[in-house]
Amino acid sequence: MQSHALAQLERNPEWRLLLTAYHVRQMTSPDGWVDRIFELANLDDDQLSKFHGRLIALGMLEFELAGRGDGMRYQLSSLGKQAQRGGTAAEYEAEVEAEAA
User: Fold this and answer.
1) Would you kindly state where each structural domain of the chain is located, as residue ranges?
2) What does the pLDDT profile of the chain (101 residues) look like in tens digits?
3) What is the pTM of this model?
């Protein structure tokens, strides 16, 4: 599944814009959770909504309900962090094979 998710990200580099934006905000967050990003340069509202859903479905972005009236909060999952470091599907497959040997 992880190599599939990384391959999807490779084929859709525009998703990385949102992933990177969360990574930057997460770095300065005391608890690692950040409010939902509603605006991002070069992406319209429809794209942002779709990208959130796809990154969550691929397991790269996690979310939680912050509380009544506070909305959703997000953070990169371990897979999202790996993708942010530039890990590719091929690299992941090579790591899996090396660990199995």
Assistant:
1) 2-100
2) 577 888 888 898 899 999 999 999 999 999 999 999 999 998 898 999 999 999 999 999 999 987 766 788 999 998 898 888 876 666 666 665 666 77
3) 0.80
Residue appearing with tokens 């525009």: 14
For residue 71, give the 3-state DSSP assignment: coil
Contact in structure between 92 and 6 (CB atoms under 8 Å): yes
Q: Which residues, at least 6 apart from 10, have a Cβ–Cβ distance to it below 8 Å? A: 88, 89
d(CA 95, CA 8): 18
Pick the CATH number of 2-100 from 3.40.50.300, 1.10.10.10, 3.40.50.2300, 1.10.455.10: 1.10.10.10
